[in-house]
Design brief:
Strand order of the largest sheet of chain A: 4-5-6-7-3-10-12-11
Largest interface: A-B, 50 and 46 residues
EC number (chain A): 2.7.3.2
Oligomer: heterodimer
Strand order of the largest sheet of chain B: 2-3-4-5-1-8-10-9
Keywords (chain A): ATP-binding, Kinase, Nucleotide-binding, Transferase
GO molecular function, one term (chain A): ATP binding
Structural class of chain A: alpha+beta
Shape of chain B: globular
Strand content of chain B: 5-15%
Number of helices of chain B: 13
Strand content of chain A: 15-25%
Number of strands of chain B: 10
Helix content of chain B: 25-40%
Largest sheet of chain A: 8 strands, antiparallel
Number of strands of chain A: 12
Helix content of chain A: 25-40%
Protein name (chain A): creatine kinase
Radius of gyration of chain A: 22 Å
Structural class of chain B: alpha+beta
Catalytic activity (chain A): creatine + ATP = N-phosphocreatine + ADP + H(+)
Chain lengths: ~425, ~375
């Protein structure tokens, strides 16, 4: 692929900068121009303005998601004429929430960001949604990032008879590019190329290989399925409705290290999803590798003049508002058949700030008493703090399971609200 | 253009090579036509409502092929799509519609009296008869592109027009988002209900947005004339009944359609139509008449005959399963309909169905008796 030109409208003047794949991109020292200073408008959005706000306002009467709780007709009216510098509009932000009234297991967000500026241009909608979703997080709050694995206490001794596997994942967005709901093929391919170049320079136990989805051989595909690494074209209507499956499988792929413990998804729901995982209960080692790998990748990107989307209020900026902050989900697959049937199970989880899912992921139910238990929070706590909650919480849950096995009570073990 | 298209202009920062889709594994009309040069030429254009090249082709990029049919891989977002993007759409139209040229003129004939015969297809074989078409309301964008406001306006105008129909056409509108369980059950039993599209062809083109807002079904009391509002087109108009009286089905079709068009015109809304493309619809495959006239017919012997496909081709007919375009046939019962849409009139296309099906039923009867049909094989129509 050849170099592409980047035109940045900085300070009113147009700069033409040739950008090779990992040469310097425009450093965003200043905030992006607001839409009022844009030289262009958005034809389609402008056409819709001919209809009154009430004619365009979606019917949310049967809806139950964060967007529907917040988006009043008045708010719709105030925001509908706006767009981000890349042309993402209010209707683009909310389409997935309009098309998907609810979900059987989880309270969905109903909103996606199309670029970094979405969170600013549409803050009147996104701030209340963020507050509702992230435990009262205020527009003035600051988020703390801590990727120092030495700060994690314990976590190397979760009982492998109960804790079958441990995993930590997060997402990262590359500053200057639109996000999966909105990006063009050119942007997506550029993100892929930059990511693969960075990943290819990893060494030691992180040394690995990239498998582009569209060039995969049958043998490679089978191996990745057997390893539980392969991600497929999204089927979730939540993702499809927001446009994240466009042009599939172009620009998508999976990178993993030779030992199959560190894995990166390129251009699925976020630019990058970074995953560290292994069988058994050594969360400490999983988190160690996670932090080391992530930090190395970020350094490599910075050396080439690009960086991740991050700010001190929202932390790491990702496609879904539910993943802001750390974007981190640390979890285990753990056998708790007795505990999970206990009447206080949900209450215990809530107090530990943990969440349960089925072992197939977010849209599944549990099978055979084995649950995916992970941190419920993303924003307002650091990475170390969240993984600490998982480590401490799962340790406690396993103790409770063992007590219940012996027919003993667990009332004295029930924790206070963290 | 007083306004630009921010997002499309943003993409122009990237080279054609970076933006041009990978069509190496694709087999649809769009992929056959869209060279990198054409992509380069058209990528900075937009229609007055802001529909762009990538919008046109998205469904074709996302859906490389289909097991039963050669898909188009393109949709229009508004009437002007066919003009602004003619460098892409004209070759596709030509390929899809038997060599139809950019200078050709299309003939509209909705005078049912011009149909010969069609009232005597053997009901022992012909189980049901149906004619459908689509209509787009001028001045509004099409289902891949329209906003909620536009869709609701199309619904309002359509329901107002339909509610003025009387006599055999007197009927009622059932909006999808207000349907009671009882109404829904009845409409399913009548085979009238259309559901949120599941076809990836339609989903990728954005036609299911905001479902079920402003979608609905109108039908007359006799349940023989039916209109779908805001599914794949603004309006789909359907006339149907059991048995083989295609003449009556077509009469009702023409009369009803003409009444609806008159009502729309009285309110200063015409249908999208021009003398080159005929009726303008969302999918280029439906241009011209937008008409599919067909029957469900039992042809267990003929359908397994070696010359079945050849006969269909010569008769200018096409087969589908009885579940519609994405299905296979069951028990030897086929949906047989006209293959053409553009370049021949409504009467001509229904005539082909009437004559062709009559012939195939005769062939079936011969094969039942163990007789050969070689002498009956028709010339290419």
């Amino acid at each position: 692929m050849n170099a592409f030109k980047w035109r940045a409208n900085i300070g009113g003047a147009l700069h033409d900068q040739k950008i090779g794949i990992l040469l310097s991109s425009p450093r965003i020292d200043q905030p992006r121009q607001q839409e009022s200073a844009m030289p262009f408008g958005n034809t389609h959005n402008t056409l819709k303005m001919k209809f009154s706000a009430s004619e365009e306002y979606p019917d949310l009467s049967k809806h139950n998601n964060h967007m529907a709780k917040v988006l009043t007709p008045a708010l719709y009216e105030r925001l509908r004429s706006k767009e981000t510098p890349s042309g993402f509009t209010l209707d683009d932000v909310i389409q997935t929430g309009v098309d998907n009234p609810g979900h059987p297991y989880i309270m969905t967000v109903g909103i996606v960001a199309g670029d970094e500026e979405t969170y600013e241009v549409f803050k009147e909608l996104l701030d209340p949604v963020i507050e509702d979703r992230h435990g009262g997080y205020k527009p003035t709050d600051k988020h703390k990032t801590d990727l120092n694995p030495a700060n994690l206490k314990g976590g190397d001794d979760l009982d492998p008879k109960y804790v079958l596997s441990s995993r930590v994942r997060t997402g990262r967005s590359i500053r200057g590019f639109c996000l999966p709901p909105h990006c063009s093929r050119g942007e997506r391919r550029a993100v892929e190329k930059m990511s693969v170049e960075a990943l290819d320079s990893l060494s030691g136990d992180l040394k690995g290989k990239y498998y582009a989805l569209k060039n995969m051989t049958d043998a490679e595909q089978q191996q990745l399925i057997d390893d539980h690494f392969l991600f497929d074209k999204p089927v979730s209507p939540l993702l499809l409705a927001s446009g994240m499956a466009r042009d599939w499988p172009d620009g998508r792929g999976i990178w993993h290290n030779d030992t199959k413990t560190f894995l990166v998804w390129v251009n699925e729901e976020d630019h990058l999803r970074v995953i560290s995982m292994q069988n058994g209960g050594n969360m400490k080692e999983v988190f160690n590798r996670f932090c080391t790998g992530l930090t190395k990748i970020e350094t490599l990107f910075k050396e080439k003049g690009t960086e991740f989307m991050w700010n001190e209020h929202l932390g790491y900026v990702l496609t879904c508002p539910s993943n802001l902050g750390t974007g981190l989900r640390a979890g285990v697959h753990v056998k708790i058949p007795n505990m999970s049937k206990h009447p206080k199970f949900e209450e215990v989880l809530k107090r530990l700030r943990l969440q349960k899912r089925g072992t197939g992921g977010v849209d599944t139910a549990a099978v055979g008493g084995t649950f995916d238990i992970s941190n419920a929070d993303r924003l307002g706590f650091s990475e170390v703090e969240l993984v600490q909650m998982v480590v401490d919480g799962v340790k406690l849950l396993v103790e409770m399971e063992k007590k219940l096995e012996k027919g003993q009570g667990i009332d004295d073990l029930i924790p206070a609200q963290k | 253009m007083p306004f630009g298209n921010t997002h499309n202009n943003f993409k122009l920062n990237f080279d054609v090579d970076l933006e041009y889709p990978d069509l190496t594994k694709h087999n649809n009309h769009m992929a056959k036509v869209l060279t990198k040069d054409i992509y380069a030429k058209l990528r900075d254009k937009q229609t007055p409502s802001g529909f762009t090249l990538d919008d046109i082709i998205q469904t074709g990029v996302d859906n490389p092929g289909h097991p039963f049919i050669m898909t188009v891989g393109c949709v229009a977002g508004d009437e002007e799509s066919y003009e602004v993007f003619k460098d892409l759409l004209d070759p596709i139209i030509s390929d899809r519609h038997g060599g139809y040229k950019p200078t050709d003129k299309h003939k509209t004939d909705l005078n049912f009296e011009n149909l010969k015969g069609g009232d005597d297809l053997d009901p022992n074989y012909v189980l049901s008869s149906r004619v459908r078409t689509g209509r787009s309301i001028k001045g509004y964008t099409l289902p891949p592109h329209n906003s909620r406001g536009e869709r609701r306006a199309v619904e309002r105008l359509s329901v107002e027009a339909l509610n003025t129909l009387d006599g055999e056409f007197k009927g009622k509108y059932y909006p999808l988002n207000k349907m009671t369980d009882a109404e829904q059950e009845q409409l399913i039993n009548d085979h009238f209900l259309f559901d949120k599209p599941v076809s990836p062809l339609l989903l990728a083109a954005g036609m299911a947005r905001d479902w079920p807002d402003a979608r609905g079904i109108w039908h007359n009391e006799a349940k023989s004339f039916l209109v779908w509002v805001n599914e794949e087109d603004h309006l789909r108009v359907i006339s149907m009944e059991k048995g083989g009286n295609m003449k009556e089905v077509f009469r009702r079709f023409c009369v009803g359609l003409n009444r609806i068009e008159e009502t729309f015109k009285k309110h200063n809304h015409g249908f999208m139509w021009n003398e080159h493309l005929g009726y303008v619809l969302t999918c280029p495959s439906n241009l011209g008449t937008g008409l599919r006239g067909g029957v469900h017919v039992k042809l267990p012997k003929l359908s397994t005959h070696a010359k079945f496909e050849e006969i269909l081709t010569r008769l200018r007919l096409q087969k589908r399963g009885t579940g519609g375009v994405d299905t296979a046939s069951v028990g030897g019962v086929f949906d047989i309909s006209n293959a053409d849409r553009l370049g021949s009139s409504e009467v001509e296309q229904v005539q082909l169905v009437v004559d062709g099906v009559k012939l195939m039923v005769e062939m079936e009867k011969k094969l039942e008796k163990g007789e050969a049909i070689d002498s009956m094989i028709p010339a290419q129509k």
